[in-house]
Each structure stands twice: as structure tokens, then as C-alpha cells.
Design goal:
heterotrimer; A mainly alpha; B mainly alpha; C alpha/beta; A: mainly alpha; C: alpha/beta; D-Maltodextrin-Binding Protein, domain 2; five-stranded mixed β-sheet; four-stranded mixed β-sheet; 47% helix; 14% strand
């Protein structure tokens, strides 16, 4: 509901708005220009890139980089795997995080302070790669997708912040619901979750990006290369085309080396999906989303 | 009807308050569902976070990964002694602190400021566009960022090098000179992470009741006063929580970013704990030493977190535990 | 309103449960796949016992589990292609290979060691061999030594060559099959077209090279009337790859030892020698006059190749087999460009001196511990005979050309490889990086080689006569293991600072004294002791 203010704006207020828009616009340009360069480079021939013939708008067009990427079936398959891993991982992580954050925000929980301290402790101290691998190994999760979802299922950092936003909810809400006969789970599901939609959107986005960008865990826990998500292959392509392997061996062994502009195509390819997701999340960040939920 | 509900609510509050005086077992029985809901998370933390912590023992051993923890020899504080007696230790500590301070003092406030500015924009379309553009740098990898900096600032062919040299009146080499290192690194972080950092604050701001602004305006408050008295307080909890959590990663500088910008000339100010560990421990698999350095960092962070949390609680805020 | 909300919520709930079911299904599929294609500990143990029982050579295929670094952007589908089918059938083996991207390879080896599930055969490059976990496992008798068995496998022994077997010993024993590389790899690539334009001969002495670099910078070799060319481009890069930036190449040509030498009863590192300093002074002069890229202390190794490919530099240090790749990229920017291998530099009237590589890049090692180990000597012999057969001429041919009609065809008596739509040879797609696990000669001349490739191989052949070896290749020093990266950094930084002009000769020698004090002295002592005990 748009509120048209009948109170006149001061001159200072309008100047501020002007400057604000300009300032944000400049900052935005600064952010996007390098990425526009990347996009332009991904459709330019190699010679143009090396000699820096263009700045944002390509001079010549050359789609060999994308042709190379799309001609590989493996790449498409691994894209599907990435999507699956991200979606399932995000849902799993968000559910666990919300549940745990809700419980840990309740003042009547026995040992609440200790439990929260223990969670913070895990943020500071970590056993490292080998012990974590051994735990995953002992649980027989090697080469299973569960190894991508379980070890990092709840991020303590995220959980603490979700817990903070749950604590910020007025306690009258749950009290009213309890009086109506809701138990804890119903309170959680029917009252709390709908009220913290912006928080859920935010941290779903964080988890999703985390899962989407992961490649290290995949290579360590998944032996079968047909299960690797797309980031693994994209990294390989970038390393390969930027000459990172010239130390390896005789000429005949390396076979075909993709040209350098493929690196740029890879960056675009790896980033675009997440960029597409953001607009859907953005609608949760509009002002006054939660207005009207608590009256008096 | 309403009156009854209010009365019941009061009873609820008093019931809850008195819960604290009830014996533990009674509380347990009454709140059983809560503890059931806690189970998954608890099990997760125990297995996947506390389980691997056993591995910290390698900091006190000469860990032989083939023989495992029980087959490796115990060496006590040998690795810590090596760390503290390393000729570069104080240097590394200092470098890490410098970057940490730059980061907290210069970078930390920026996402807040930008979130506030974005919040002030009236046109929803412009706001959405600006937001979407701001978070793009977050997805650009550090390798690309380093490449961009080389392109811009290289002493051989940097696009901005001449311009900057004129500004300073002498030939500057941003990528090699020591005094430029911390600003360069911080500048990179600002470019890459400010936009993404606003997300959390914008989410918090979306919960602010618009009626408050209308009421304030009627009372005669100008934009600045509105921001100070309505908008900022809405972010207070988030800011404080984030600050405390930031202390938990105080000595972490981000390995990849620094490693890419390190070279012969700036090594004396650029070598930080993370790159040091990489060079001495990770590249040749010295797990014990790497774990020892990590443990040292963790202990320092622990004290910082405990300290800031206490301060926050004293100031009446909710801490992280 | 309430019903609508409930409806929406149940829709979301359904979606979530659907996704979870999908996830379970995929995971289940994944798990069932994994037991057949990957190396789970159970199946390996089972086949281990199977192999023992079928020891009587009744034709049961012997299962070998392997592990290999992935350099390309696709792993070969070895369960489903003709090349592997032929290989496994011909040599009566069943292969199961884990491919790991090179960036995480060392970490994966570490986790395998820690969980005691290291596959039977795996490649160990220098970074793996220097990895403390591997070294400790070696010292705990985790790997087979081949010394006692080699005599029984003459094809394998001769293929590698006695010298390389010797070079690749660790602690006096052969821990694996070395992967052969060109010995005379270090050198430089130069723009032949610029030399032609300026009517200069290929430089061979240091003075000639200096003159060429000056001419490249000042005399407009590309003839475009613009002062936009430079002589040399190089990068300081990490200490581990000293040969890349050319300092060591030049130093050896001046007469310095290649890293280390044992002379007159003393172990001498190259850093402190007169000749090394001469090389540094040479480069310093080049830097001062602007014949070289000014940001050489800031950029990475890849960037210096980029500079060269842009066409504004005339020479770049590197490994000579990179020449072809540089040529291919360069012609896209400068169509008339022609690269050539820089002649082996020498002092006036003397023979050239070339710094040799070790002649191999890593070993194929054989695991003795854990659930995937090669359990008995008989199993080891089976694998060794597998490799022995691969060294025979018919199998080498198969490795190089594949199956006729599938991977190559014979045109006018010449075997020509097939290419696919992506520009790769069908053979390289089928074999993939598995080739790194095979014994392959350091270089193989093909009839389809370009003039440039031929010149690279020719150079490799000629320079064998002038090689200077690094004595420390198979010497052991505990201090070096502990502190190598720190020590290397001190001297590398000192060299760079000297070239750039930040410090002078006294400053450099100061750094050298620091190097000695912080551990260099100990390394010298330990190398000397080891050399005198095991090598002499």
C-alpha cells in the first residue's frame, strides 16, 4: 500500500535523495563494469583479449568458447547434479538450521547458555580436513551425495543469526498460540516460520550459494567422477586454458588445450544461475514486509 | 474474549517464569517436544563438529597419517615452540593484526551504510536494480580480482598506474610497495563483499514498521533523525551479533586473496598466518604444525569472542551465548 | 484466507518432500553405482583374496586399483570404451581408476593415507613426493621398493634407463617407476620473425643475447613504427619452480652449479657462487635498461606467457616444449609470428651448459598398507609384468596410436589420428589422463610433427651432451624437508630484489648469510654427509 505523504519534503531531503541515487549509481557501475568485461571477453576472439582491443562492448564476436562448453555432455550432466545438490542441500540445511535455532532461542531450555556456547565453540575450533574425512569414512558416506550435505549441514554462523532473529519476535505471539493449544512444533511451524520470511530468504540464499560454489568437498568425498558438480569441471577448464599445467609432461600428453577466452565463458556460465535466483529472493526484502503481524 | 486472553497470557508468562524454579525433571517432561526438536541438530554437532575435534590432538604430536592418532609420537608443545621462535612470528602476527584492523574499522561499517542508503531510495525499481548489481562482485573469484588489479596497477602496463603516479608525484608501484598493501587488500574486500554484506541488513530493515516513519514525520523529525532513531536501532542487534562473530575470525585473513597478491617486494607486510601456514604446513603436508598454528589462532579468537560477548551483555544486549 | 494459506503451505510441504524423495532416489542410485565403479574398501578386499586364489594363472583378470591426477576437463569413460577394453583383455587385467583434479590431488592422497585406503598404484609428482605425509608413510614401510624385482623385468628396466632409475632413487631405493621427461627441458623461446626482420643471427653467447634484447627493445623489430616492443619477459613466481624464470638457466650457462654440486669435497649451493651472481648482474643490467618487463617481480608465471602471446615481447624463459603452445596462441594475435627455441647459451669459445631436469616427473608408486594395498609379492609381480608388457613395442604403438579404424587410420603408410568435433583426438578422449599412469617415452616423434616441434625434439637430443645435473635430486636432508619453502623464499626474494635494484651486491650477500644461518648451513652439512655415505 503506497502512502502518499501529504507533508512537504524539505530541500535538504531532496538534495540527499539526489546525491544518494547518484552515489549508489556510481557504486553500482563500479561493481558491474568488471563483470561486463568478463561477459564481453567470453564472446571475443582470443586475439582481442590479449591485445585489449575492447573495454565493455566486444569488437569482434567469437562464440568458440561457448561452443566448447556446450559441446561437452559431461558439463550438462554435471550442471544437473549441481542443481540437485544445491536444492536438496539448501532445503536440508535450512530445515535443520531453523529447527535448531528455534529450540536454542527458547529461554526455558535447560542448559541453553551452555548449548549456545558449545555451538559458538565449533565456529572457532575445528579438527580439520583429515578428521572430518575420517568421520565421513567411518559412516560409510564416501562416494555418496550425503557426504556433500551432512558434514556442512548446519553452519553455526548462520544458525546463530537465525536464532537472533527468532529471539527478536515478540513473545506474546507464541504465548497466545500456546494458550490456544499449540505445542512447540506447531508454534514453530505455524507462527515463527511465516514471520521470519526475510531471514529464511536470506539464509537460504547463503546456503544455496555455498552449495553451488563447492567443489573441494566433491573431489574429496566423491571418487566417482561422474558425480562431480559443475564447479569441479569449470575449475579444471580455467586452470587448463590459462596454462597452469605446462609443467606436466611432453606435448603429446596434454592433447587439446582450450583457448583462454574459455576461462571467461566459464565464469559467466558458473555465475549466471545464481544471479537468476536472486530476483526471486529479493521480493522478501521489501520494506514493511512484516507489518501487521503484531498488533498492540 | 480479549480480556480473557490477556489474562491467560499473563498466566502463561508467570508459568514460564516460575518454570525456572521448578525441578529439572519436571521441566524436561513439560517441554519434551522441545528436546525432541533439538535432537537432530545436537546429533549433527556431536558427530560432525565435535567428532573431528579429536583431531586437534595432532597439534601435540608428530602426526603420522598412516599410523593415525594412536600410532603417532607425542611431542607436547614442540610445534608451538617452533611457531613462537620463528624469526618471522612477530612480523606475521603484526601483519595479520594490521589487516584485521583495517577490515573491521574500514570495511565492517560499509555494508551497514550502504544498506541504509539503499533503504532510503524511494523508487522500488531503482532499489532492486542497484541491489542486484551490488552483489555481483561477490561471485567473481579472487583470481579474477587479482587479474583485474594487475591490469589496473601493474608497474609495467597498468591502466591506472600513470594517473596514480601523477597524483602522488612519483612513480608508484601499488602492487609492490609495502605501504599500499593493506589498503589494496581492504579495497579488494570492499569491492567484492560490501554488496553481499548488505543483504543481511536489508532483511532486518524489511521488518521495520512503516507506521513508525509516518508517526515520526508527523512529529517533525527530519530524514537524519528518522534514520538515527528508527532505522539504526532496528539494525542494532544484527550489528552487535555480527561484530561478536567477526571476532571469532579475527586472525583469519582469507588465504586465497592474500596469496594471489603476495610477491617478493611486499612479503614483509603481506605474510599473514594463513599464507604462513600454507607455505610451511600445507604445501608439504605438515599436518601437526598446521594444526598447531590453527589452534593458536583459535585460542586467540576464543578470548576475543568471550571478551566482546561479555561487553555486549553488560551493555544490555543479547550476546551470542 | 486461512484455507488458501494452508493450501499454499501444504503445496510447499509436498514440494519439499518430493525433492527429498528425489534426493534419496538419486543417492540410492549413486550408492549402487559406487559399488561397481569406485574403489570401496570392501570390494577391493574381496578381489584381493580372489586374486590370491586364482594365482595359478588360470586366466582370471587381476584387478588393479589406481589413482591419477586429472589435467584435462573430462575423465575417460574407461568402463565403456574400445581402448580400455582392448588393453584389459590383452594384458588380462581389470582396471579401476580414481581420477582426481590436480588442484586437490595432494589433499586426496592425504585423506587416503589417513583412512588407509590408498589405491594400489598411484602417481606421485614432486609435490606429492615432498609431502610430509607421504614421506612419513614411506619411512613407516608403506610402499613397495622395486630394487629386488627389476632384474626380472628387462623391458621395463631398459625402457626407463639405468641413469633415470638411479636418479629417481629415494633414500637409496627405488620406490616407483619414474615417469620420463625430456632432460634438457629448460630453455627459452624467442621470436624468430623478429630476428629475421632485424637480420640478426640466433644469439648463442651472452653478449649476442644482450645485443638481441637491446635490438628487440629499441630497433622496432615488428616494423610498425611504434616503440612498443621489449626484449625479455619473465616472472619471479614461486620458489618451487626456479627454472621457470630463467635465473637458473642463465646461471648454469654461466657455469654455476645446477642447484647443487659436489666439488673438492664440498657441497656447494648455487646461490653463493660467483657465476650465479654474474647471472643476476646480467639480468639486472637488462632490467635497468628496460629490456625486460618492469613488473617481473609482481606477476605470475601465467601472466608472463600472456605478455609473450600479446606479441610485444621477443623472448620468454620456460620449458622448451611449451614452444608449440606459445606459437599457436601467438599466431592468433600476430599471424606472421614465428617462435623458435633459443640456442643453448655458452661462453665465448666454450661448450654450452644446460641445466637438466631430473629426467623424470614423479613416480608411479605401489601401496603396501591399508585395505587397498598390494598385499603379496606375487601381486606386485603381476603388476610389474603388466608394466613390463606395456614397454614392449607393440603396446607402445597401441598407446601412441590406438586401434586402427577407431583411433587412427593408415594413409600412405603413415598412421594419422582421428579428431572429434571439439578439436581433440579421439585417442586422447578415450585414454585421457590415464596416459600419465603408463610408461611413455620422454618424447615421441611423429610424422605429423611441425617444424617447431621437431626443433624442440632436436634441441632435446643435442643438449643431452651438455647437461649439468642437480646433485641434490636424490639427496636427503631433514632440514631441507622442514624448511625448504622458507629457505627458498629468502634466496628467491634476494635474487629478485637484486635484479630490480632494491639491494646491491652487499645486500644480496647479506641475504645469503641469512640463508646460511637460518638453515642453509645445516642443509649443506646434511647433503654432504648423505652424499658421501650413499652416493660416492
Amino acid at each position: 500500500m503506497k502512502e502518499k505523504s501529504k507533508i512537504k519534503q524539505s530541500a535538504g531531503s531532496r538534495i540527499f535523495d539526489c546525491f544518494n541515487i547518484l552515489f549508489l549509481g556510481c557504486a553500482g557501475l563500479l561493481c558491474i563494469v568488471p563483470f561486463l568485461y568478463v561477459i564481453a571477453a567470453s564472446v571475443s576472439p582470443l586475439s582481442d583479449i590479449l591485445t585489449r582491443k575492447f573495454f565493455i562492448i566486444p569488437v569482434h564476436f567469437d562464440f568458440t568458447a561457448y561452443k566448447y562448453l556446450f559441446s561437452s555432455i559431461q558439463l550438462m550432466k554435471s550442471m544437473g547434479i549441481s542443481v540437485m545438490v544445491t536444492v536438496v542441500g539448501t532445503v536440508l540445511s535450512m530445515s535443520m538450521t531453523l529447527l535448531t535455532a528455534y529450540v536454542l532461542s527458547k529461554p526455558q531450555l535447560i542448559g541453553r547458555r551452555v548449548l549456545n556456547a558449545l555451538v559458538v565453540f565449533t565456529m572457532l575450533f575445528s579438527g580439520g580436513m583429515i578428521p572430518t574425512y575420517l568421520v565421513v569414512y567411518k559412516m560409510n558416506l564416501i562416494d555418496s551425495f550425503l557426504a556433500l550435505w551432512l558434514p556442512g549441514c548446519i553452519s553455526a554462523y548462520n544458525m546463530i543469526l537465525v536464532r537472533t532473529s527468532i529471539s527478536a519476535l515478540p513473545s506474546e505471539l507464541e504465548e497466545a498460540a500456546t494458550v490456544d493449544g499449540c505445542n512447540y512444533f506447531q508454534c514453530f511451524y505455524k507462527i515463527v516460520i511465516p514471520l521470519i520470511k526475510p531471514t529464511i530468504a536470506t539464509f537460504s540464499l547463503f546456503y544455496a550459494v555455498g552449495y553451488w560454489n563447492s567443489y573441494f568437498d566433491a573431489t574429496i568425498y566423491l571418487n566417482d567422477s561422474s558425480k562431480w558438480p559443475i564447479q569441479v569441471w569449470l575449475r579444471q577448464i580455467v586452470l587448463l586454458s590459462s596454462g597452469g599445467f605446462s609443467d606436466t609432461g611432453s606435448i603429446s600428453e596434454l592433447g587439446y588445450i582450450p583457448p583462454q577466452n574459455v576461462s571467461y565463458a566459464v565464469i559467466v556460465f558458473a555465475t549466471i544461475p545464481i544471479l537468476c535466483v536472486y530476483p526471486f529472493v529479493q521480493k522478501y526484502f521489501t520494506k514493511g514486509m512484516m507489518v501487521g503481524s503484531v498488533k498492540g | 474474549m480479549k480480556k480473557e486472553k490477556i489474562l491467560s497470557a499473563e498466566k502463561f508468562i508467570s508459568v514460564n517464569k516460575s518454570r525456572g524454579r521448578e525441578p529439572v525433571l519436571v521441566r524436561f517432561r513439560k517441554d519434551w517436544m522441545l528436546y525432541v526438536m533439538l535432537m537432530p541438530g545436537l546429533v549433527y554437532f556431536l558427530i560432525f563438529k565435535y567428532g573431528p575435534m579429536v583431531g586437534l590432538i595432532t597439534a601435540f604430536q608428530d602426526y603420522n597419517s598412516m599410523l593415525g592418532w594412536f600410532g603417532s609420537t607425542f611431542v607436547g608443545l614442540k610445534h608451538f615452540k617452533r611457531l613462537f621462535s620463528d624469526a618471522n612470528f612477530l612480523n606475521i602476527f603484526r601483519n595479520t593484526l594490521v589487516l584485521a584492523f583495517y577490515n573491521i574499522i574500514i570495511f565492517f561499517p560499509l555494508p551497514i551504510i550502504f544498506a541504509l542508503l539503499i533503504n532510503e531510495v524511494k523508487s522500488i525499481k531503482y532499489k532492486n536494480v542497484v541491489q542486484s548489481v551490488f552483489y555481483i562482485p561477490h561471485f567473481v573469484s579472487w583470481v579474477v580480482v587479482a587479474g583485474i588489479c594487475t591490469t589496473l596497477f601493474s608497474s609495467q602496463s597498468g591502466a591506472l598506474t600513470d594517473m596514480i603516479s601523477n597524483l602522488f608525484g612519483r612513480k608508484v608501484s601499488i602492487l609492490s610497495e609495502e605501504s599500499f598493501f593493506a589498503p589494496l587488500i581492504t579495497g579488494q574486500v570492499i569491492w567484492k563483499e560490501t554488496g553481499w554484506g548488505t543483504i543481511m541488513f536489508l532483511a532486518a530493515l524489511s521488518g521495520v514498521d512503516l507506521q513508525l516513519y509516518v508517526a515520526a514525520k508527523i512529529d517533525g523529525a527530519n530524514r537524519r533523525q528518522q534514520m538515527w532513531h528508527i532505522t539504526l536501532p532496528a539494525l542494532k542487534t544484527t550489528i552487535i551479533t555480527l561484530l561478536i562473530l567477526r571476532m571469532g575470525t579475527f586472525l583469519n585473513t582469507g588465504f586465497e586473496q592474500i596469496f594471489l597478491m603476495l610477491n617478493t617486494m611486499n612479503r614483509s607486510v603481506g605474510e599473514v598466518f594463513d599464507t604462513y601456514v600454507y607455505q610451511t604446513a600445507l604445501t608439504n603436508g605438515r599436518i601437526s604444525y598446521g594444526t598447531a598454528v590453527g589452534l593458536f589462532k583459535s585460542v586467540v579468537s576464543l578470548f576475543l569472542v568471550i571478551g566482546t560477548n561479555k561487553i555486549a551483555k553488560k551493555a544490555g544486549e543479547e550476546g551470542v551465548y | 484466507m486461512k484455507e488458501k494459506r494452508q493450501g499454499k503451505r501444504s503445496k510447499t510441504a509436498m514440494l519439499i518432500s518430493l525433492l527429498l524423495v528425489l534426493a534419496m532416489a538419486l543417492t540410492a542410485c549413486g550408492n549402487s553405482n559406487s559399488t561397481t565403479t569406485s574403489t570401496s574398501s570392501e570390494s577391493a578386499e574381496n578381489t584381493g583374496t580372489e586374486a590370491k586364489e586364482t594365482d595359478a594363472g588360470n586366466g582370471e583378470a587381476f584387478k588393479i586399483t589406481m589413482m591419477q591426477e586429472l589435467y584435462s576437463d573430462a575423465a575417460p569413460d574407461y568402463a565403456n570404451n574400445a581402448w580400455f577394453a582392448y588393453l584389459q583383455e590383452e594384458l588380462n587385467v581389470e582396471l579401476s581408476i580414481n581420477f582426481v583434479p590436480t588442484s586437490t590431488y595432494v589433499d586426496k592422497i592425504t585423506t587416503y593415507i589417513a583412512s588407509n585406503t590408498l589405491p594400489m598404484v598411484f602417481t606421485a609428482r614432486s609435490d606429492v613426493l615432498q609431502n610430509n605425509n607421504l614421506i612419513m608413510s614411506m619411512e613407516s614401510d608403506g610402499f613397495w621398493t622395486l630394487d629386488d624385482y627389476l632384474a626380472d623385468y628387462p623391458n621395463l628396466y631398459e625402457f626407463v634407463g639405468a641413469q633415470t632409475w638411479e636418479n629417481s632413487k629415494i633414500n637409496g631405493k627405488n620406490y616407483g617407476i619414474p615417469r620420463l621427461r625430456i632432460l634438457a627441458r629448460n630453455g627459452a623461446i624467442i621470436r624468430q620473425d623478429w630476428l629475421d626482420n632485424l637480420e640478426l643471427d640466433m644469439p648463442e653467447t651472452f653478449d649476442e643475447l644482450y645485443e638481441v634484447l637491446r635490438a628487440f627493445t629499441e630497433d622496432d623489430p615488428d616494423g610498425n613504427g611504434v616503440d612498443d616492443t621489449y626484449g625479455l619477459t619473465t616472472a619471479y613466481e614461486v620458489a618451487a619452480n626456479r627454472s621457470w624464470n630463467g635465473i637458473q638457466t642463465l646461471a648454469v650457462a654461466f657455469g654455476a652449479p645446477n642447484g647443487w654440486v659436489y666439488a673438492d669435497g664440498e657441497m656447494v649451493p648455487d646461490y653463493g657462487t660467483e657465476e650465479y651472481l654474474t647471472a643476476l648482474q646480467y639480468l639486472r643490467k637488462i632490467y635497468e635498461n628496460g629490456y625486460m618487463n618492469l613488473d617481473f617481480g609482481e606477476i605470475t608465471a601465467n601472466t608472463r606467457y600472456e605478455y609473450f602471446q600479446q606479441g610485444s615481447y621477443g623472448m620468454v624463459f620456460g620449458v622448451i616444449d611449451d614452444a608449440n603452445n606459445q606459437q599457436e596462441n601467438l599466431v592468433q594475435v600476430v599471424p606472421d609470428a614465428q617462435c623458435a627455441v633459443l640456442a643453448a647459451l655458452h661462453k665465448e669459445g666454450e661448450d654450452p651448459l644446460c641445466n637438466a631436469t631430473a629426467g623424470f616427473n614423479g613416480l608411479l608408486m605401489f601401496t603396501k598398507f591399508g585395505s587397498n594395498a598390494i598385499e603379496t609379492e606375487d601381486d606386485l609381480r603381476k603388476i610389474l609384468s603388466f608394466y613390463d608388457s606395456l614397454c614392449k613395442e607393440d603396446m607402445q604403438d597401441f598407446i601412441g596410436y590406438g586401434i586402427e579404424g577407431v583411433h587412427h587410420e593408415v594413409i600412405d603408410g603413415v598412421k594419422t589420428l582421428f579428431y572429434n568435433d571439439q578439436g581433440k583426438t579421439v585417442l586422447s578422449v578415450d585414454v585421457g589422463d590415464f596416459s600419465q599412469l603408463l610408461p611413455i617415452a620422454a618424447f615421441t616423434r611423429r610424422p605429423t610433427d611441425t617444424a617447431l616441434i621437431t626443433s624442440v625434439f632436436d634441441a632435446a637430443d643435442e643438449r643431452e651432451a651438455y647437461l649439468v645435473n642437480d646433485v641434490s635430486t636424490n639427496l636427503k636432508s631433514d632440514t631441507k624437508n622442514e624448511l625448504s619453502s622458507e629457505l627458498d623464499t629468502i634466496m628467491m626474494d634476494a635474487s629478485v630484489k637484486f635484479i630490480v635494484g632494491t639491494i646491491d651486491e652487499a645486500g644480496y650477500l647479506n641475504e645469503y648469510a641469512k640463508w646460511l644461518a637460518q638453515g642453509g648451513e645445516d642443509v649443506i652439512k646434511e647433503f654432504k654427509a648423505y652424499y658421501e655415505e650413499y652416493i660416492q
